[in-house]
């Protein structure tokens, strides 16, 4: 684990001292947009973009789900990094296809030789301008949602205009308390920082559980971006966050509505093939040696996400 400073790789763990033991996530450094406009710098073109992802990472996972759902798999190719993120950060199993690089930080310095910042997945690369379009998953999924519609003919909309404010409201609640909340528990280096994160995480999950008792999805009668953003944390929760990040008040299995909702999302066509529990468990337990110095990866739990869920029946009345 480390970061680039003026284009040079430094092997350092997260700095929490300045924030009383609290983990604070750094903002992404590349924030361009692919737009379907004649004068856009980054236009939606088949084969032009390459996505670097980790199958372990919940943020990268969002982009893989949107790539599947929006039928972009034949238009945007991918490199999957190894699950182990150690002294050199994210590494490729085989040299990646564009430059033959073996470290993700080389992709960052390829784009910007003096880059300073963390080297994170996902990364959306533009082969034409040889630069990084974006390394911010929330913005990459917005691009995937609409920018390529004319190319793919897929007009499914996970961020419909009429639902913007409701979706934004859930995202603003779920990101700090749940998506980043599990990391705020796991990466806390003081008891009080951990307990504060733990409390807000489980209060938020309680609220989601009660919302899902009366609503099939977070917003409206359809699956939206807000559901997919929540999904990638939920699907990792019992396998990793309960143990490794000490998020152990309850498992998702103990929340009947959330568990059934999780199964429904998992069973949406195209989604389960984006979920890889080997990468997920191996990454967290093997890479975070400050948290798990033995690097032993747990065998369990046995998860059953393929069995029938009750969401259709519950909301058919
Ligand atoms: N804001 C980014 C966050 C991405 C992120 O933090 N990814 C993690 C993997 S789960 C990472 O690559 N961390 C490496 C590091 O922090 O050094 C996004 O949502 O795209």
UniProtKB/TrEMBL annotation:
GO molecular function: oxidoreductase activity
EC id: 1.8.5.7
Record has Zinc as a keyword: no
Origin: domain of life: Bacteria
CDD domains in the record: GST_C_Omega_like
PROSITE patterns xref list: GST_CTER (PS50405)
Domain (GST C-terminal): residue spans on this chain: 160-287
Top class in the EC scheme: oxidoreductase
Entry annotated with the keyword Oxidoreductase: yes
Keywords (A to Z) from UniProt: Oxidoreductase
Protein name: Glutathionyl-hydroquinone reductase YqjG
Gene name in the database record: yqjG
């Amino acid at each position: 684990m480390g970061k680039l400073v003026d284009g040079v790789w430094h092997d350092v763990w997260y700095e929490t001292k300045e924030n009383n033991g609290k983990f604070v996530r750094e903002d992404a450094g590349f924030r361009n947009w692919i737009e379907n406009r004649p004068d856009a710098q980054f236009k939606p073109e088949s084969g032009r973009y390459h996505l670097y992802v980790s199958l372990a990472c919940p943020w990268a996972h969002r982009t893989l789900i949107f790539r599947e759902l929006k039928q972009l798999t034949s238009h945007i190719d991918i490199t999957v990094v190894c699950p182990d993120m150690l002294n050199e950060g994210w590494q490729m199993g085989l040299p990646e296809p564009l430059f033959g690089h073996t470290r993700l930080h080389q992709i960052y310095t390829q784009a910007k030789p003096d880059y300073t910042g963390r080297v994170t997945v996902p990364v959306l690369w533009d082969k034409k301008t040889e630069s990084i379009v974006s390394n911010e998953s929330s913005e990459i999924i917005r691009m995937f949602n609409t920018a390529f519609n004319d190319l793919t003919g897929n007009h499914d909309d996970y961020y419909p205009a009429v639902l913007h404010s409701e979706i934004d409201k859930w995202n603003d609640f779920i990101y700090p308390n749940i998506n980043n909340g599990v990391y705020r528990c796991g990466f806390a280096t003081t008891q009080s920082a951990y307990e504060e994160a733990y409390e807000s995480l489980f209060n938020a999950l309680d609220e989601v559980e009660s919302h899902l008792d009366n609503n099939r999805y977070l917003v409206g009668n359809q699956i939206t971006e807000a559901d997919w953003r929540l999904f990638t944390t939920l699907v990792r929760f019992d396998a990793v966050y309960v143990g490794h990040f000490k998020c152990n008040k309850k498992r998702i299995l103990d929340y009947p509505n959330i568990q059934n909702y999780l199964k429904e999302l998992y069973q949406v066509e195209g989604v389960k093939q984006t979920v890889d529990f080997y990468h997920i468990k191996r990454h967290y337990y093997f890479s975070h040696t400050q948290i798990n110095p033995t690097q032993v990866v747990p065998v369990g739990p046995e998860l059953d996400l393929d069995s029938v869920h009750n969401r259709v029946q519950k909301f058919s009345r």
